[in-house]
């Protein structure tokens, strides 16, 4: 995560911070602690985002879209298939974590392969194999 966070400008909404870090730490999710560490290092910024929750949408997802529009971001990164379909319907560019790792890996494949190994347990096997092949891993 650190390699990716250093290579690209990463900004999360305060709602995502609450959901992913604060709530995640209560549930002892490893990525919650990793995100918090990157925030402390200045590799991930947290932006206050005012958002009106749309019916059927999660607050974090709505805040991501609001933040994307507010800062005129290039894309949103997510692995939530339902959310990705919503982004697609709204014509909002997005990347999955494995796609982002591959992009960073074009600059530093060893670091990208290490990052890919860390997320292996939480991604689909075909996404892992495809990304590993793209990065030149065996």
What report would you give on this structure?
The chain is mainly alpha-helical and 138 residues long. It contains eight helices and four strands; from the N terminus they run αβααβαβαβααα. It has a domain at 2-75. Helix content is 59%, strand content 9%. The protein has a two-stranded parallel sheet with strand order 1-2. The chain has a two-stranded parallel sheet with strand order 3-4. The radius of gyration is 15 Å and the shape is globular. The two termini are 21 Å apart. The mean pLDDT is 85.
Write the layout of secondary structure elements.
Elements: H1 2-7, E1 10-13, H2 14-26, H3 30-40, E2 44-47, H4 59-71, E3 76-77, H5 81-89, E4 94-95, H6 97-105, H7 109-119, H8 125-134
Parallel strand pairs: 1-2, 3-4
Helix pairs in contact: 2-3, 2-4, 6-7, 6-8
Major sheet size, sense and barrel closure:
2 strands, parallel
Q: What spatial form do the alpha-carbon principal axes imply? A: globular
Low-confidence stretches: none
Number of helical segments with 4 or more residues: 8
Rg for CA atoms: 15 Å
First-to-last CA distance: 21 Å
The total count of strands amounts to 4
Quick check: average pLDDT? 85
Helix content: 55-70%
- Judged by helices, strands and strand pairing, the structural class is mainly alpha
- DSSP strand content: 5-15%
Order of strands in the sheet with the most strands? 1-2
Question: What can be said about this structure in brief?
Answer:
The chain has 138 residues and is mostly helical. It contains 8 helices and 4 strands.
């Amino acid at each position: 995560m650190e390699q990716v966070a250093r290579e690209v400008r990463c900004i999360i909404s305060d709602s995502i911070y609450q959901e992913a870090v604060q709530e995640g730490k209560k549930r002892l999710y490893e990525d919650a602690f990793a995100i918090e560490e990157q925030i402390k290092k200045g590799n991930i910024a947290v932006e206050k985002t005012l958002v009106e929750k749309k019916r059927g949408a999660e607050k974090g997802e709505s805040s991501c879209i609001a933040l994307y529009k507010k800062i005129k971001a290039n894309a949103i990164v997510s692995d939530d298939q339902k959310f990705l379909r919503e982004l697609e319907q709204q014509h909002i560019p997005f990347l999955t974590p494995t796609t982002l790792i591959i992009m960073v890996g074009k600059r530093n494949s060893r670091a990208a392969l290490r990052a890919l190994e860390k997320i292996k347990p939480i991604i689909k096997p075909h996404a892992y194999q495809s990304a590993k092949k793209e990065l030149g891993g065996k």
